[in-house]
Every structure is written in C-alpha cells, then in structure tokens.
Design brief:
Layout (H helix, E strand, L loop, with lengths): L1 H60 L10 H20 L5 H17 L9 E2 L3 E2 L1 H75 L1
Antiparallel strand pairs: 1-2
Helix pairs in contact: 1-2, 1-4, 2-3, 3-4
C-alpha cells in the first residue's frame, strides 16, 4: 500500500507538471506573438510613417525644382491619409501609456498642423516660396519625427523586456523537464523494488 501510495503521488506530480508545462508553452507562444505583432510590425509602421513624412517635407520645401507642383496639395493630403491609416493600425496594437501619449501627439500634428488647404500658403507667383510658413511646417515635421524616434526607442525597450520574459519561462520549463526526469527515475526505482520484492516473496513461498 505504501508503494502504491508513492506511485500515485509520483503520477499526480507528473500530471501536474505537464499541466504547468502546457500553460508555460502557451505563455511563451503568446510572448513571441506579442513580440512580432506589437513590436516588430510596429517598427515597420514607424518606418513607413517616417517615409511618408519625408515625402511631405520634400513637397513642402520644394526640393525638386523640375517637379510639377500644380497638384502638390492633393499629394500632401494623400500622404497624410496614408500616414493616418498606418497610425490607425498602430493604435490597434498593444500600446504602453507612453506610446499612447506619443502617438496621440503625433496624430494631432498631422491632422491639425500639417493640413494645408491652399497652395498659396506655400508659394505665390509674386513672392515665391513662403519661407516663414515653410519653416513653420518644417518645425512641426521635426516635432513629429521626435515622436517617431521616441516610439522607436520604446519598441526596443519593450521588445527586450518580452524577450527576457520568454527566456525566464524557457529556463523555468527546462527546470520542470529535469524535475519530470527525476520523478520518472524515482517511479522506475519504486516499480523495480516492487517487482523485485514480489519476486523474492514468490521464491520464498516456493
């Protein structure tokens, strides 16, 4: 009875270990999914947004002298819409408090400060490029870029946290695996002793 009790306890421990292991694997899988969906993809969003800002700044600054600027306002608006669509995807990810604040500030700059209704704000035939207004827009773009840089830094920090968390769970899983091996060895020894004892008792009866 004592041996059977020991075997039962060992089997229960192995079963409990397997339940813990399954939960651990789910947590590890969830963590790596979070790294991909909320950090790596977001870094891609930040790069795309940065490219859109660069295109807007080129149009505002009249960098290309040979360019036809007759539809410049439509092109700026198109870039802004594309950026806001990416921002919307960004907002659907798991955001930290700081990310939410930075993204909100960035969105306000795009919607309120870089929305250009008339080309005359940038250029007139009589005065040429409105340097003061262009300088103001450039300052707002620089502010938006700072928000993006800070958002990018957060991805690095949060990504490292998630990877560290995954490493801890993997190490814990390895410890549980060693524990299971030890339990199995003990179980085998107990079964061997039971069989050996039974064999000895049978010989004694003969």
């Amino acid at each position: 009875m004592r041996a059977l009790l020991i075997i039962s306890v060992l089997l229960l421990l192995i079963y409990a270990k397997n339940l813990i292991e399954r939960r651990s694997f789910r947590d590890i899988s969830s963590t790596f999914t979070e790294v991909y969906n909320d950090r790596l993809l977001v870094e891609g969003y930040i790069f795309q947004i940065s490219e859109g800002l660069f295109q807007i700044q080129k149009l505002i600054d009249h960098c290309n002298l040979d360019y036809d600027y007759s539809k410049v306002i439509d092109e700026i608006e198109s870039n802004e819409k594309a950026i806001l669509q990416i921002v919307e995807d960004f907002e659907n990810t798991k955001l930290t408090t700081q990310e939410s604040e930075l993204l909100g500030d960035f969105k306000k700059i795009i919607v309120n400060d870089l929305s250009i209704k008339s080309y005359d704000l940038l250029y007139t035939d009589s005065a040429g490029v409105n340097r003061n207004q262009v300088k103001l827009y450039d300052q707002k773009i620089s502010q938006a870029r700072r928000d993006l840089d800070n958002l990018s830094k957060i991805q690095m920090v949060e990504g490292e946290k998630l990877i560290s968390k995954a490493k801890v769970m993997i190490n814990r899983s390895q410890i549980w695996a060693q524990f299971e091996v030890a339990l199995l060895i003990i179980l085998i020894v107990v079964l061997f002793l039971l069989v050996f004892r039974k064999s000895e008792e049978t010989k004694g009866m003969i």
